[in-house]
Structure formats: C-alpha cells, structure tokens
Amino acid sequence: MVTLAERLLDEAAFPGPPFRPEILASYQGVREVRYCPMNGAARILPDGDALVIEVNEAHSRGKQNFSIDHEVAHTLFPTYNRYMIEDAVTGEFSDKSEEEWLCDIGAATLLLDGRYLRPLARDAGPSVASLIELADLFEASVEATARQLAKLDLWPCAFVFWEEGFRQVDRPRPGQILLPGTEHFGLPKAKLRVTRAYVAPSLGWFIPRNKSVPENSLFRECWESDGIVSGIEHLDIGREIVETYVECFYAPYYSNSVRIGRVVSLLLPCDWRHYSPTTPVSYQVEVSVADHQ
Ligand SMILES: [Zn+2]
After folding, report:
1. What pLDDT score was predicted for residue 181?
2. Residue 127 — pLDDT band, cuts 50, 70, 90?
3. Selection from 106, 88, 92 nearest residue 41 by Cα
4. pTM of this structure
5. How many whole angstroms from 121 Cα to the centroid of ligand 1?
6. E-assigned strand segments in the chain
7. Measuring CA to CA, how many Å separate 190 from each of 143, 146, 185?
8. In 3D, which of 97, 91, 4, 82 has the Cα closest to residue 44?
9. pLDDT reading at 254 higher than 90
10. What is the C-alpha separation between 196 and 15, in angstroms, rounded?
11. CA of 129 to the centre of ligand 1 (A)
C-alpha cells in the first residue's frame, strides 16, 4: 500500500507539501469531492462514468484530508471496481478489516509522505511546536502527524493524547447524569487519562490506554492553561516509573458538536541529547478546534 501510494504521489508530482487530496483523487478517476452533512467520515461512490467522494463537512480540514485520502486508497486496490464504500470512521487503524487498515496506511502516506516528512522533521527537531508546524504544513491533523512522526522513529519519543475520563469500573452507566460538583457526593471524579499513545519503536515504553496521571502533573497544569507547558515529569507507565521531559499543549476538539478537552504531549527521555531546559514555556500557539483525527 505504501508503494502504491508513493507511486500516485510521484505521478501527481507535487513540488512539496501539502499534497492536496482532491488532486490525488482526480488521478484516480474522482470527478468531484463534496463536503456534506453525514454521520460517518466519508464515502466513495460511482457517479455516471466517474467517481465522487463525499466527506463530512463538520470535520476539521486535517481530518477531512485524511478521510479523502482514505477513499483514494480504496481505489488503489487492483480489485476495486467502482462500487460504493461507506466509511463510518477513518484513521482508527483497526485490525478488524485488513482493507480498512491498509487504506488508513495509504491515507497516512498520501497525506504525510515520509520521504518529505522525514527530512523536514529532522531539521525541525522534537518539540510540540514542530508537531504543530508540520501538521499545518502538510494540512493534516495533529494526531495523524504525531502518529506518522512516531512511526518514522527519528527520535526516542512518544506522543501521548489525554482526555478526562473514568476507570472502567467508575464509568457512568448509560443514562446516568453527572452534574458538575456531584463528585463531592461520593461519585467518582474524572481524571486525565491516556486516549492514544504513539510511541517511537526506539523508545520502547509501553504506555497503556486509560492510564491516569495525578492532579499535580504537568498534564493537568496544561489542561488549565494556554500555550505550551514543559518540564520534567515522573510518569507511572504501569511496569515502571520513568523520568521524562514533557512538552504539552491544550488542543480541544469537537465531536458531534460537543467540545472535548484534550492535552497533546510529547515525551522524551531526560538524557535526550537535544533536551534543552531553556525551551520556552509560554510559546503561544493557535490550535484549531475540531482537530481530532
Ligand atoms: Zn474505508
């Protein structure tokens, strides 16, 4: 799939990023990309003698670009014969369907071609400012960019995404309404927990999903502030407590019109040779809401 995606990129011959999904789609017989209301992420369907891609108009630009590229990746299969495909979700990299998994890999390649991303990222160095700038340059979501950067394994790092949530046993039952402040009456309090962790292979840490952090952590501090928060954190990752240099920023997104708070973090071992204690802590960033991959 990566080879097929790179071949399509070569055919389109962009001078550099961004690699516009609509142009890539046109090379695959797609006459039009429509932005429309829908429950799912995107679909591809025949329209006369051509193809049309429809994508969720409510999603962020980066997410839409990934979804369009996911549909383009479907057409890269030699067995694809102009039938309609509905994608409720894209970018989940779920192993439940091999074709859907491969199309997510194809989309990640088309959007964030490693042949371009690798040298740009190497020059930029490991920081959340680099992550934001690269996501912007490639017109991808922060999450898709983080995943691709971790996969390239340029540095021993992890990109970890945090949201408020509960332990499995404490999760509110369906229909149970939690009013603000009711935790004082014995109900559990939501903690910041890992929703996604993209770990570079060379780091070798296993960061479990749903792992929580204490209230006095840098991640919680970041939750309550603007800009980038950075510092040293002792992070319990289950099997061990690791000392890590952290940079993080608050990047909420919208899901079904509900604003969901999220902290995006970069973790590096403290002995990382590029670690600099003078990294600015008040770097202001414009973070697009609705940026969820
Ligand atoms: Zn699909």
Report:
1. 55
2. very high
3. 88
4. 0.86
5. 28
6. 30-36, 42-47, 50-56, 85-87, 158-165, 191-199, 228-236, 241-250, 253-255, 258-260, 263-269
7. 23, 25, 14
8. 82
9. no
10. 33
11. 31
CA distance 36 to 20: 19
Residue type, position 97, single letter: S
- Ligand 1 center from residue 202 Cα (angstroms): 30
Q: Is 274 helix (H, G, I), strand (E, B) or coil?
A: coil
Distance between Cα 73 and ligand 1 center (Å): 8
pLDDT beyond 50 at 281: no
**Which two three-digit tokens encode residue 122?**
């190497």
Residue 123 has pLDDT above 90, yes or no: yes
Q: Residue 268 — φ and ψ, nearest 5°?
A: -135, 145
Residue 13 corresponds to which amino acid? A
Kindly report, residue by residue over 171-224, the tens digit of the pLDDT: 656 555 555 555 555 567 888 999 999 999 999 899 999 999 888 899 999 998
Q: Are strands 241-250 and 263-269 parallel, antiparallel or unpaired?
A: antiparallel
| Exposure class string for 130-163: b at 16+ Cβ within 10 A, else e | bbbbbbbbbbbbbbbbbbbbbbbebbbbbbbbbb
User: Mean of the pLDDT values across residues 61-67?
Assistant: 96
d(CA 131, CA 141): 10
Angle at 110 between CA 147 and CA 267, to 5 degrees: 15
- End-to-end Cα, the chain, rounded Å: 20
Cα 71 to averaged position of ligand 1 atoms, centre (Å): 6
Residue carrying the six token digits 């770990």: 199
